[in-house]
Amino acid sequence: TEGDLSCFDPRSERFTSYSEKDGLPVSYPTSTFLYDKENKVLYTAGKSALFYFDPDEMDPDQSPQKTIITAMYINGVLHMPGLDKIESFRSWQNDITIQYAAIDLTNGPGTQYEYKLLGEDTGWIKAGNQRQINFGRLQAGSYTFMVRATNNSGVRSMEPASVRFYIRPPFIKTIWFYALVALFTAGLFYVLYRFRLKQLMKTEHIRSEISRNLHDEVGSTLTNISLGSLLAQKQLHDQTALQRILKKIYEDSQHVSESMREIVWSINPQIDTLGDALPRMLHYASELLEAEDIVLQAEIAPEIEHIKLTMQQRRDLYMIFKETVNNLAKHSKATQVNISFHFNEKILFMTVSDNGVGFDTSAPLINNGLKNMQERAERHQWKLQVRSTFGAGTSINLKAQIA
């Protein structure tokens, strides 16, 4: 033609065109040919040039060159795939672009491509002359991308180019996540079980504590009252003895009443802060010390009021305080007492000091009151320190860790 050289293949009924880029020496050959039967070549010319060629050497069925993967982009970032290697990507790296090409020196623009993605597609998909395919939001799994070329004669490349890659599932869809969920669920049930068991043990402890207190502080006193009543009946003729017995019965009944009030107060759930407990404690101290003509001075830090205590902590703190005040009123012969409560870094500091006669702290703790105070402090891992000097008074310091 006046534009290129066209070869018609009667078998495939296709035309194959050749131009300057395919080796034609002229841009516009003439449409007139001269066939040399002896040499079996065709002559033609164009633009001051004469040339010839052998039609038998023309091969319109020539296969395109091998197709290759030229580039791979993961979420827009270039990633060159390795040979015979399965590429592995994270779950969010699922926007994949693959570029490919087949080198055809005869008619490159006429090369057609088709591809398939094993793992998602099942058949070959025509891509025309497009040399880039994008896959967005691929699901987790294993994939194999394959691409092959077809030249302008309709002949496909012998071997397709391929790349294999694997997109890992998100962590929440892995067996490790399910294992952690199962472990967390089991742990949660175990914690709830332990919490329930702890609550039951705590309830049992409270019941045992109440029972022990009723037995120790109330039961024995009621027994004394009962025995005193029987004894009083036998001493009706002796007014002096009767008065002494009745006085003892009255004191025991007062002790029972006070013990009952203390037990009820200690288990009252509405009294869960020191702000609720301190008024009763100071009222008890002021009444007892006032009866002994002892001046009381109290210093309470404002933050003390909001400190929460457990029932056992509240009761033991009160009993230590009560025993301290009782011992002070009975034995110190003091004229002044200072009581202070402070709180710093989850530690409660209680100090009770007097200007009394003091005592020897190196002597064995014979007094049951001091023993009980030490035992109550050790129960909560509190530190109780008793300092006393003859003639210089006594100071009792409690250092209580409050969770």
Task: Give a verbal description of the structure.
The structure is a single chain. The protein has 403 residues and is an alpha+beta fold. The chain contains five helices and 19 strands. The protein has helices spanning 175-234, 239-266, 274-291, 311-331, 368-379, and strands spanning 5-9, 14-18, 34-36, 41-45, 50-53, 67-74, 77-78, 86-89, 96-102, 112-118, 125-128, 132-135, 141-150, 161-167, 295-300, 336-344, 347-354, 383-389, 393-401. Strands 8-14-13-10-11 form a five-stranded mixed β-sheet, with no helix packed on it. A five-stranded mixed β-sheet has the order 15-16-17-19-18, covered by helices on one side. A hairpin with a 4-residue loop joins strand 4 and strand 5 (50-53).
List the keywords.
about 400 residues; alpha+beta; 5-stranded mixed sheet; 5 helices; about 35% helix; about 30% strand
How do the strands of the widest beta sheet line up side by side?
8-14-13-10-11
Mean pLDDT: 82
DSSP strand count: 19
- Low-pLDDT stretches: none
Continuous helix count: 5
SS class = alpha+beta
Measured distance between first and last alpha carbons: 100 Å
* SSE arrangement, N to C: EEEEEEEEEEEEEEHHHEHEEHEE
Percentage beta strand: 25-35%
User: Helicity range of the residues?
Assistant: 25-40%
Largest sheet, strands/sense/barrel:
5 strands, mixed
**Gyration radius over CA:** 52 Å
Shape: rod-shaped
